[in-house]
What we know:
Helix content: 25-40%
Radius of gyration: 19 Å
CATH class of the largest domain: Alpha Beta
Structural class: alpha+beta
Mean pLDDT: 92
Low-confidence stretches: none
CATH architecture of the largest domain: 3-Layer(aba) Sandwich
Distance between the termini: 23 Å
Number of strands: 14
Number of helices: 9
CATH superfamily of the largest domain: SMI1/KNR4-like
Amino acid sequence: MRPDPILLRELVDASPGFGRRALPAPPSEELIRAAEARVGPLPPSYRWWLSAYGHGRAGRAEIATIGPADAHESLTAPWRLDGDRLCFAVEPDCGDAYSFALDRAGAGEAGAGECPVVLRDGADGEEYPVAESFAGFLAVRAALLRGLREGPNPSVARLWRSTPGVLLDNGVHVYGPHLLQERNETFEVARYAPGWTLVGDDSGGDGLFMRHHGRDRASVHRLGLGAIGGDVAAAGEPVTDDLTGWLRAGAVLR
């Protein structure tokens, strides 16, 4: 799914453990283009971060900015580009490093121009997949910092690897890590429907629920937020068993 910049800003501003370091001003479009002339086209969601914040961190990972080419924190520092890997964030004290997989640009589900993010483990040197985009990297980091692992179930985790939630024109809203915890606490889902998670709503009083335990963790069920009970599947109506595909098709509700 293509990252939503509005939800992305909400995620960054609401996430504990994220920091936006004060700069005189974020890098200008001219400076960003000059950096692209050195390292190649930058993913749209990372470009958004540079324009909105310029510099900061996600947890312990310090995110590169645009500055003098030889500065350690600059994206254009010579050590950051290693073949088809562009390192955009590192953890201190020889910790993990996060890079764009330039050889797979546009290959995932996050939209044209986005690059999958991979991690180089600071301990064993092995490479591991992290997210489908820079926005997904931020969403995954925010989820981990909130104790949500990578998501309440594999379907939501897959979505978060591309974008921190989805808000469609028809009102369907699937939450990112910054909203999921708060909405579930507000409606006391763990108390009234244990085993279920409120993953979104239709902006009209109905919630979208998925299981976070058991064999079926792919089905989405629609139920009024004032009628939350133990057997959501029986009380509500089935919506889809393919969350990402349903959202991509416009999330039509009957």
